[in-house]
Specification:
Blueprint lengths: L31 E3 L10 H10 L10 H10 L7 E4 L1 H12 L6 E5 L4 H8 L5 E4 L19 E5 L11 H5 L7 E5 L27 E6 L1 H4 L7 E5 L1 H9 L8 H10 L2 H26 L5 E2 L7 E5 L3 H10 L2 E5 L10 E5 L3 H16 L1
Helix pairs in contact: 1-8, 2-8, 3-4, 3-7, 9-11
Amino acid sequence: MRGQLLPAPGAEDVPRPDLGHHGDAEVGAGLVDLAVNVRRAPMPDWLADPITAALGELAAYPDPAPARAAVAARHGRPPEEVLLTAGAAEAFVLLARALTRLRRPVVVHPQFTEPEAALRAAGHEVERVLLDPAEDFRLDPARVPEDADLVVVGNPTNPTSVLHPAADLAALARPDRVLVVDEAFADTTAAPGVPGEPESLAGRRDLPGLLVVRSLTKTWGLAGLRIGYLLGAAPLLARLAAAQPLWAVSTPALAAATACASPTAVAAERAIAAELAADRDHLVARLSGLPGVRVAGRPAGAFVLLHLAGAAGVRERLRERGWAVRRGDTFPGLGPDWLRVAVRDRATTDAFTAVLAEILEA
């Protein structure tokens, strides 16, 4: 069946989204960056020291085995169920290249555009399932075609920041389907009284065809290092590894993966996620008090999605005042009246919302 470009409810006239646009394109000199969802903080010694030490080992080819074992131990899996990648973006390219006989690949939108872009670049015709903003972009598993042999969904989803229940995602698993759950922002989530990452499927080994995508970029500020990984059944990962270039992950990136899988890192990550949740609540409260601004759903990640009439013009005026936010119209299912804003500290939030209020009142 041919892929369908399905319009979002009430957005039939929205131009075809630019799948290659990303938040870094919004950032410029002198702008406060609320467009990129990467935490910027001093690197802790337990992470900086191994990366620095790895620079003295660059004459040798990278050995992924120690990092693979460390990541596997973190998630309670054997090493053969881990595939290290040069960021999550490489994982999507491997999927598109290795799964050559897809009949009906489906991507649930709005979400990160790289999975669909990679599939299309490899010659696949992609069908979109568009979640409804009137339903706060919540996932209804029944909307996914039963005969889809590849399903891609984010959790929490970029750009909506919606955290779907693990049970709803698990309901999409089938023996004849690859279910890709993009958990690039799972380490930014937290719930009171809930240990670990809420709604994550990273430890599930019982779901057929499940492939979890992870990234170390967001919490630890490693976008320039390019490190991520896949979790899934060993035979499926072997197929993807066969499509991966030799030594795809650098020695410094492997050192970072090992460090970030340690108990010290996981404990620090949970503390950061709890602090982020408080900062996110502060941002939502400030935004919700502005006229005409609606925060989508119940944000759970490192960013929030806003709807306001004339958002494209507001974004330009924010740039003139020194603030960069992420446009929403490049995400399938959204349009020009959507903006994504990264969660920052409370002082930054207060300064930003004060400027936004002035723009909206002008």
